[in-house]
Specification:
Helix content: 25-40%
Order of helices and strands: HHHEEHEEE
Shape: elongated
CATH topology: Fusion Protein Consisting Of Minor Coat Protein, Glycine Rich Linker, Tola, And A His Tag, Chain: A, Domain 2
Number of strands: 5
Number of helices: 4
């Protein structure tokens, strides 16, 4: 009983302190197959799976390839509270390169778990550059 009373007193006092901030850390979404390990291992697995996904699903638009149209497309998206991709902006390159980058990112699978903050699902923002280069 004393522990419970002390705990409630500490929480009440802690909430009333001035110039004190509580910092909560965002936890990244968990890509399917990356559920094991600690947070940094899951983050590394997410980055690896994202890079693999982009490379595996990469398709150079045929007309742009034939015409040697190259460019860097930057795509900004969120993994939302449901663990799904929500694309916010696509810049750089031409319209067809942008469409391909958007198609690639939109095909990311649903996450095993969404991003979290303070124990609640949270949308996490990502910005990914995709370079289209013909090598010609």
């Amino acid at each position: 009983m004393v522990l419970c009373t002390t705990s409630l007193f500490a929480q009440r006092e802690w909430g009333n302190l001035e110039k004190n901030e509580l910092t909560m850390r965002e936890l990244a979404p968990i890509w399917p197959g990356c559920e094991d390990g600690n947070a940094s291992q899951r983050d590394a697995c997410f980055k690896k799976k994202l890079a693999t996904h982009i490379a595996k699903n990469f398709k150079y638009p045929s007309e742009e390839y034939k015409k040697n149209i190259q460019g860097r497309v930057v795509i900004t998206f969120f993994i939302n509270e449901a663990g799904l991709v929500d694309i916010k902006s696509v810049t750089g390159g031409n319209e067809n390169l942008q469409a391909e980058a958007k198609r690639n990112i939109a095909s990311i699978p649903k996450m095993a778990k969404p991003g979290m903050m303070g124990g609640k699902p949270r949308a996490i923002k990502y910005t990914v550059p995709i370079t289209f280069s013909t090598g010609k």
